[in-house]
Write a structure and sequence with these properties.
The complex is a heterodimer of chains A (232) and B (123). Chain A has nine helices and nine strands. With 232 residues, chain A is α/β, with parallel strands linked by helices. In chain A, β6, α6 and β7 form a beta-alpha-beta unit. The longest helix of chain A is centred in the last third of the chain and has 14 residues. With 123 residues, chain B is mainly alpha-helical. Chain B is 63% helix and 7% strand. Chain B has a two-stranded antiparallel sheet with strand order 1-2. In chain B, a hairpin with a 3-residue loop joins β1 and β2. In chain B, α1 crosses α3, α1 crosses α4 and α2 crosses α3. Chain B is elongated and about 55 Å long. The chains are: A alpha/beta (232), B mainly alpha (123).
């Protein structure tokens, strides 16, 4: 089996803090996966390890069979938690930027989505609301034909209507052989579009199952199960 | 007819039920071609793999059939749709009967209430 993401005994510590503790995980191609867990459970650490922004303390992480590096960055489309775009730039400038950077970037797709959302490509990022900025970033990320999309909290800052639009954007734009990993704690909003969910708790995986398996076995939604597993 | 999914039951099972309803009520007429899996998944805001699973089950039961390269179609068998309608009706009535029994009505009472309400509907 050729997994898009593999973690073998993956551990990451920051000084005395253990962010990920001996994680073993396989994620298949062509899936939409929810990476779910409360704050400080290790979601962002895992995503940063995938992107080579952090290096493992021990164990290994493989993207399409390869260690994170230049080659894996080419096939990953990453939406970070915080924006890294210069806010003095116009959307059209950033699109040019992406075109230069990524060979799999499809500008037409980006322009098409922008027009559907009534976002003027000539606008500068700095003049936009927080929600609009988030939409622009997601549009950029989803306009690539990547093998792996890593979306860190893509729906945190937007209203419920925009959330629906974003989910629709993810559904209609991800590459069919690609995998989308979405980290979030807004579970009830996204569980319908997920194939499977991964629960992270204190740096360890406590569950990896399909949404329908969870519903069949427990008679509960993923959201309800999450509330139970992570009850404070 | 929009898609209406509840949160506590498997999604694919609910998709099967709603596709059956759409077929029986003529949203997708006899022999017509269905939209692609992706389109249907988008419409229902569900994962394409889940939609695929539901459609495969409906193919197994015969309500849908697929033609290589040209897509998926609704059955042309009128009888099959009739049977499906009857099955759905029986399920609905069973559910109603159970609720009424739980409320403490006996068969006689339920029937006479049904009769009265049907008469009022006719007016």
């Amino acid at each position: 089996m050729n997994y898009i993401l593999e973690c073998n005994n993956l551990t990451k510590t920051f000084g005395p803090t253990i962010a990920l503790n001996n994680v073993n995980l396989n994620v298949e191609r062509g899936k939409i996966v929810g990476l779910l867990g409360p704050n400080a459970s290790g979601k962002t650490t895992l995503i940063k390890l995938c992107n080579d922004l952090l290096t493992p303390t021990s164990g290994e992480i493989l993207i399409g069979g390869k260690k994170p590096g230049i080659e894996t960055k080419r096939i990953i489309s990453y939406l970070p938690e915080r924006t890294y775009l210069n806010d003095w730039m116009r959307v059209s400038d950033i699109i040019e930027f992406f075109k230069d950077f990524y060979t799999d970037f499809v500008p037409d797709k980006a322009y098409d989505m922008l027009s559907k959302l009534n976002i003027d490509p000539k606008d500068k990022l700095k003049t936009m609301s927080k929600g609009t900025k988030e939409k622009v970033q997601l549009i950029l990320v989803m306009s690539r034909e990547a093998d792996l999309y890593l979306l860190d909290e893509p729906i945190g800052g937007v209203d419920p209507a925009a959330r629906d639009y974003i989910l629709d954007t993810i559904l209609s734009n991800y590459n069919e052989s690609g995998t989308v990993i979405i980290s979030t704690h807004l579970i009830s909003d996204i569980e319908k579009i997920l194939d499977e969910v991964i629960f992270l708790k204190e740096g360890q995986i406590v569950l990896q199952k399909t949404v329908d398996e969870i519903r069949e076995e427990t008679g509960k939604s993923v959201d309800a199960l999450f509330r139970e597993v992570f009850k404070c | 007819m929009s898609w209406n999914l509840t949160s506590d039951r498997p999604i694919y099972a609910q998709l099967i039920e709603q596709m059956e309803l759409k077929i029986c009520s003529g949203v997708y007429p006899l022999g017509s071609k269905l939209p692609s899996v992706r389109e249907l998944a988008r419409e229902a805001s569900v994962n394409p793999n889940t939609m695929q699973r539901a459609l495969s089950k409906l193919e197994e039961s015969g309500l849908l059939y697929s033609v290589r390269t040209s897509g998926r179609f609704v059955t042309e068998d009128k009888n099959m749709i009739k049977e499906t309608k009857k099955r759905i009706a029986r399920e609905q009535i069973q559910e109603l009967l159970k609720k009424m029994t739980d409320l403490g009505f006996d068969q006689q009472e339920i029937l006479s209430m049904l009769n009265d309400m049907a008469k009022e509907l006719k007016k």
